[in-house]
Amino acid sequence: EGIIEFVASSSKFYVFIPKFGYLLRSEINGILPYQPNDKFAIEARNYCASHYTQSNILITPTEVDKYGYFLSKIVIKTFYGKVFGLAEDLIQNGLAEIYNKFINSDSDDTTLLTLQRDACQNGVGVWSDKTRHDYELQAKTVEKVKVISIWNPVKYSLQLLDHEMAQINKALSEQLVPINMPQDFPRLHNND
After folding, report:
1. 79 contact partners, CB below 8 Å, separation of at least 6
2. Residue 185 pLDDT level (bands cut at 50, 70, 90)
3. Using CA atoms, how far apart are residues 147 and 152, in angstroms rounded to an integer?
4. Distance CA 61, CA 175 (A)
5. In terms of Cα–Cα distance, which of 53, 43, 26, 123 is closest to 90?
6. Interior CA angle at 50 toward 48 and 51, to 5°?
7. What is the rounded distance in angstroms from the CA atom of residue 25 to the CA atom of residue 13?
8. What percent of the chain has pLDDT over 90?
9. Residues 114, 85 contacting (CB under 8 angstroms)
10. Residue 125 Rama label (left phi>0; alpha psi -120 to 50; beta)
């Protein structure tokens, strides 16, 4: 058992374990972490901070990531006796997405998939922006890309060279068709 002391991001929390006096850095297992400046990440962090700071929880750590966060399943216990998973609540409200790398076939994951499908169909949260998920990269696949710019050794922008990009390049390389304008059109802009 623990208490959420601080919400660091939309999926990362500092959890105090009173029984041992430990403060754990925890991340929800199975949730896709957003970039801190992402619009929906800010909305999700604010939601978690207002709803779950100082909440009693049951935490089940499964592993430690490369940054020292405990990947955990977090279950919220409300004052009124209601018990629910934090991942389920975030996904149901469209404030998180399933991290496909961690999906298994157990009952929790099928519940998460159902909740995400419902949130997507209802256009809730991240699913309200229809252009956000036009093209989703799959794990362990290779994509053709072009490096557009390099900002620093770990941050750079890429352009996907997929079918849509080939159509755009084809359209841009075609000869432009001149537009036949009426003879009186140029005179309209001569301060007549």
Report:
1. none
2. low
3. 13
4. 60
5. 43
6. 65
7. 6
8. 0
9. no
10. left
State both tokens at 187. Answer: 């005179």
144 residue type, one letter: K
Identify the DSSP state of 2: E
Q: Across the chain, what does the average pLDDT equal? A: 76
Please give the share of the chain, as a percent, with pLDDT higher than 70. Answer: 80
Fill in the DSSP letter of residue 163.
H
What tokens were used for 55?
A: 């909440």
- pLDDT of 39 > 70? The answer is yes
Closest by alpha carbon to 113, among 76, 88, 136? 88
> Considering only CA atoms, which of 44, 63, 67, 47 is closest in space to residue 55?
47
The confidence band for 44, taking pLDDT boundaries of 50, 70 and 90, is confident
